Amino acid sequence: MYRLLVQGVTDYAIFMLDPHGIVVNWNAGAERAKGYTGDEIVGRYFACLYAPEDRAAGLPEACLREARETGRFEAEGWRVRRDGSRFWADVVIDAIRDDDGILIGFAKITRDRTDRQLLLQRHREEERRFRLFVQGVTDYAIYMLDPSGHVVNWNAGAERAKGYTAAEIVGRHFSCFYAPEDRAAGLPEAGLRQARETGRFEAEGWRVRRDGSRFWADVVIDAIRDDDGTLIGFAKVTRDRTEKRVQDLQVVEAKETAERHRDEHAAASAFLDSVVATMPSSVVVQDGATGRIRLANRQAELLLCRCTGELIGRPAAAVLPPALATLLNAALADGPAADGPAAVPVAVEAPVETAWGLRILRMRALAIGGRGDQPRCGLLIVEDISDEHAASLQIHHLAHHDGLTGLPNRELFRLRLGEALAAGAARVDTAPSPSTAVLCLDLDGFKGINDTLGHPVGDHLLRFLAKRLRDALRPGDTLARLGGDAFAVIAAVPGATAEAVALADRLIEAARRPIEIDGHRIEIGLSIGIALAPEDSDTADGLLRCGELALYEAKRKGRGRHARFHGALETSARLRRLIETDLREAIARRELALHYQPIVRAEDGETVGYEALLRWHHPSRGPISPLDFIPVAEETGMIDEIGTFVLHEACREASGWTSGRSVAVNLSPAQFRNPALAAQVAAALAASGLSPDRLELEITESVLLDASSNNVTVLRQLEQLGTRIALDDFGTGYSSLSYLCTFRFGKLKIDRSFIREICDSREALAVVRAITGLGRSLGITVTAEGVETPEQAACLRQEGCTQLQGFLYGKPAPAGALAERAEAPPLRLAGA
Fold this sequence. Notes:
Layout: H1 2-8, E1 13-17, H2 28-34, H3 38-41, H4 52-56, H5 59-70, E2 72-80, E3 86-97, E4 103-112, H6 114-136, E5 140-145, H7 156-162, H8 166-169, H9 180-184, H10 187-198, E6 200-208, E7 214-225, E8 231-240, H11 242-260, H12 265-278, E9 282-287, E10 293-296, H13 298-305, H14 316-319, H15 322-334, E11 348-354, E12 357-368, E13 377-384, H16 386-400, H17 410-426, E14 435-444, H18 446-453, H19 455-472, E15 478-483, E16 486-493, H20 497-512, E17 515-517, E18 520-522, E19 525-533, H21 540-557, E20 562-564, H22 567-589, E21 592-601, E22 607-618, E23 622-624, H23 626-636, H24 639-654, E24 662-666, H25 677-688, E25 695-699, H26 702-705, H27 710-720, E26 724-730, H28 736-742, E27 747-750, H29 752-757, H30 762-778, E28 781-784, H31 790-798, E29 803-805, E30 813-814, H32 818-823
Parallel strand pairs: 19-20, 22-24, 24-25, 25-26, 26-27, 27-28, 28-29
Antiparallel strand pairs: 1-4, 2-3, 3-4, 5-8, 6-7, 7-8, 9-10, 9-13, 11-12, 12-13, 14-16, 14-19, 15-16, 17-18, 21-22, 21-29, 21-30, 22-23
Helix pairs in contact: 11-12, 18-19, 19-20, 22-23, 24-25, 25-27
Protein name: 3',5'-cyclic-nucleotide phosphodiesterase
Domain PAC: 73-125, 201-253
Domain GGDEF: 434-567
């Protein structure tokens, strides 16, 4: 059976080598991956599968040497097909030894991961290009700060603007760019605080170069957060605007000089004309009396007319865009008296239709007071900031949207949720205001799809589902990706709970429909937690937390469900946090212990083994049920440490039983996420000296329900150690029978729910009869759990159940209490 299974595998190249590296057999996956048929490759030295440069470097021999010395060789790299093409491969070579430890060959497993490698290379190339782009920009200082304000990186524009090299500035606090008076006033910290609280800080002002000189800068600081909303730093963009600032000041200075010194008017006018003509900004002067344009520099004519000589002498209202003409007229109307001082105007930014199409312009206008019979004029200074505006919008978009799906990210989600809550609180009309609903969404089984089909398929699935979920929403609703496979929705729900539940049902149904990606038919579920404002919370953080607690409850109930937040969930969450804290201390204080429940032979009642059951006696709260603390251990990752303790303790105590009886240990599905699980079991056996055939490992059907084929691989590794694998709670899962084709189990354990009803329910009896018949047909031991009465025992014995376990034969007890039981006469079943 195993040979047929291996030969039929097509996704993995699986073949054997003899001790000298000669290919002994060849499966379909190997032929598909490497291009050789079995006839072509069997008998050849496996080095032909390596690139010439790797063969010259002795890599094949080094691989075998490491596998021979350590038992395993793992690596990834380029390999060669029969036609000479190359593919990127994950490679595992395991040394195979007989019972006497003599090397009899090697098992070699290769998987083609070319698509993943090319994707990684593409991502690295994109990142490299973007880094080169930023590093190559010289007009803008672009660099990153860490959350405390220290410089992380430095581009050419920053070095040009501020005078520091990267080696001189990286690691220093960015406040060194500020003038001493600004540092004393706390301006750097205020900028970071505003960016941290609102997402962005914008300003202009004087900054200091390395040599002590100052320059006028336009500054933008954007807060950068990760998928969890955690602040990871700031993006800071600075542009040296000294030339423009100086020119603006020179214009004002020239005007004032001309007004103060009539006798120097001609020289001042010439100087002014020179400055205006060479300014990079557009300058227009309108005669306040006639409304005609008296002066327009070359930049203004090119911006507004595309040619020179088209503006001067013509009515401003006829040749200027309406926005510019309106700004000039307003300045003239509100300007100072004829001999009054000129105030520095406030800049206005707006889209304006120009000769080059719609452009974003920064505009300043002020009235210039005349002297004597000279009329007042309107001075307009215009700067085309379209490129700067586009870059700013792009940075802002990247900081607030998910790069994969284009959806709002966690930061933008929080902002919009805050706005929705504020709008709801501000309503003063008498009509009942709609509730604001937050729906927290999580995909069921997404990790398995990522693991089995690859991240490109997973990314495609996320993009597809994002569109499908967005289409299921109403205008005005917000869908955001919070990170990974977690999404969230903001919706106004006039019908409160009923409408929020209807929306959740609609989203679950939208996600449930199968999706075809790259020839794969994918079905995925959606779990949803629902929270409403103001009923559950009136703050963004509080409402999101309520939604996440409800989501946890929905996932606890099963896949494809939704749950409404209620106060008891907060209590449960606090209890889980308390258990988590106490459990960490319990592990350190060694409060966890094992109790053992006997497993008896149905035929004569003799004890054949024990199941190790974990117990926790809290020093102040007393015994705590495994149903309360095991899920917490699985969620927090403590299950690995606890599982290792259980394996070592059970093997150690069982090794001292003179009866030679077996011990059964439960493995959590969460432990299968640890690639070293098989190694941990082997270590426990080695440390205790327990024979592997005396160790029984119990798993639940959820281990095989995971779409990851890695779990089956780990089960095979455990079986190869010589342990027996038992399928616990059999008959309660999604597709129990299919698991028996996936893996050859040594034992089936009938769930106690069927045993409890066996004497009163024909249905329960029929299930037990079917399972015991299946066990006999497959030659698998069948154990009934939860046997509490002699009547149940008699019925199970009559149905051919192999082993029995339950309170009828003994409650779980510490190892020290097993000695009497081990020497006592065998228990006899009722009717035996």
